[in-house]
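Anyone able to model this chain together with DGJ?
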Amino acid sequence: MAIKFSKNEGRFILTTKDTLYAITVLHGRYLVHTYYGKKRPAPELKFEPCVVSFSPYKAEYGNQYSPDVFFSECSTYGAGDFRPSALRIKNTEGNSVTEFAYKGYKKYKGRHEIPGLPFARVGEDTETLEIKLEDSVSKCELKLFYTVYYEENVITRSMQITNNSKGEVKIEKCMPLCLDLEGYDYDLIKLWGGHCYERNFERTPLCHGTQVISSSRGASSHQFNPFMALCDKKTGNDKGDVYGFNFVFSGSFENSVHVDQMENTRVLVGLGSECFAYTLGPKESFDSPEAVMTYSPDGLNGMSGNFHKFINKYIVPEGALEGHRPVVLNTWEACYFNIDEEKLVAFAKEAAKTGFDMLVMDDGWFGKRNNDKAGLGDWTPNPEKFKNGLGSFIKRVKAEGVQFGIWIEPEMVNPDSDLFRAHPEWCLRCPGREMSLSRDQLVLDMSNPRVVEYLKKAFTDVFEGLEIDYIKWDMNRHLSEVGSAHYGKEKQDEVMYRYVLGVYELCRFFREKFPKTMIEHCSGGGGRYDLGIMQYCSQIWTSDNTYPYSRTPIQYSSLLGYPASVMSCHVSNPGTNMKSLDYRFKVAVGGVLGYELNILTATEEAKKIMAEQVKLYKTFDRLILTGEHYTVIAPVDSRFESHYFINEDRSEILLSYVERKNAGAGKILKLRVRNADKTAVYEDRISGEKCTGKELFDGIEVISEGEADYARLWHFVKI
Ligand code: DGJ
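re: yes, here you go
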């Protein structure tokens, strides 16, 4: 049993394989967070004195309790806790003071299913604790859900608010994860960036006050990823206490870390208040998205490993890890909008000869889409580019011996499109305000069910009956002037949130309507690289930056929070530089391999090398999809990068070493494969050399070449 309640102490204990989480019901009323971390004997409630100057307390309990000082499972606004709150609800009286009292609990196998939102699936051992609370003034009921993933050391959290009053209440802030930790001797790791430079690793010491990691863009964004971690100062790849957090949501979010006057730390993960509000009528309920947390004493690799296992097992669609992922040849960087049937059939022919599995036709196939200024929203094939329609074109592609994939961007529209001319009211807009453009496009109002229904029909009309093996779903701008013609005034501040619900509804439709079609998500590269969208796709386009020197750190940081199985990595055009082609390949096999170059102008030598690369990749691609991943050298403040994948029985290891720009020659490095089986002998299938597991454990020595574009791979197999 992963969840226990001890009546005497009023204490809930949640255990995973290596962690323990404790909650105490104080005075039969307050839900006090008691402990989270390494497993240990029954934790005690700490924190004395309980009340400090200027901290409010209730006469009944005197200095036995102040919400301002105690650790809280769900801090609410306005009743004495002055730290950032997890929940704020405006009641029928017009004030936003809320105070929830404990009313009881349930625990059960499985989990609470969150309507309309993605959430982690359940396994046989998944258990949930549901705690019920009530606020006597607003007459709201609050349920807190804790779902325990024992083997993966993950606990997820969500909340449900029900309005039992006779009037309307408004949720003004909603953070399903509120975690108070003792002290503040931690570093905060966050992933910041922008288009083409996603997920830069930043590690800074915590400081007093609040640090916010958020997106107000309507997408989880290139700028700040919802993943973050807190680690102790000594944390490295393999050692140190690390708490990891994430949010199963693809829209605006607001995570924060606050160090208070007592020098303790509060972590909040959720929807925040800037981009979110939600009105509940009598008897209506609101379910929050799910937040995810893990703890590992084994450094960043331990924390990442917990997340990788959890995501691969419970987040990505069932079956996504089976078999081999197709090695695609994508047309974008080779052709941009300049595509037509003859050219792409020629691409397909060469792709098949080179050993690629699939041709992906990117942007430019529909409407008047000859550049990014027109056509978006008109999902019918361009008759000049595809004279006999898509069906006969796809047949020709397949006859060449490759599968077929296609690009779409359903959420967007160009002002110069038939769709916009027919339905300008279907865009996000606020009365009296000019709609801002971004990449010459506007955003469709996905909060409006009519728009979503229209898109379902439009894509059914064009795709039904066609043999499409893969869809790349893109999103190339963020949301501004967020308002909807579909809703009245009182619902306008829900539109940002409801937009994401509409996207998820369409995602579910695609998966149900085209169940055999693999989906890759993308948002100008990795602008929606999150646990929400991962429920609906096998992989995500990591970044529009395919330059390998930039890719190495992007891939490293992506792997901190997400598994390699979702990380789509392409080899882009190396020109005539075959050393660069080799290097690009060795970087790209940090994740799921693909190519993005002009196969018609590639030299015979390049095609031969690519064919060998694809063949080699297929000897170890299952390791990348399903193996455990460990960083050996992080490309953070280092001119080198090294990592390995290893399978469960440690019989196979893929070790990689990459020299970054200006790495310098002559440096001796030891690449330690700490998880190698020390009793075994391995053979490197690439060089044919043999070595013992002990040698791998102690470290393979490499001396840096210092020349441009140098990388090496070893594929060790137990003999
Ligand atoms: C942005 C994507 O990241 C690219 O790969 C490509 O699909 C373009 N959009 C097409 O417009």
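Residues 332, 362-363, 407, 474, 476, 522, 524-525, 541, 544 surround DGJ (CB under 6 Å).
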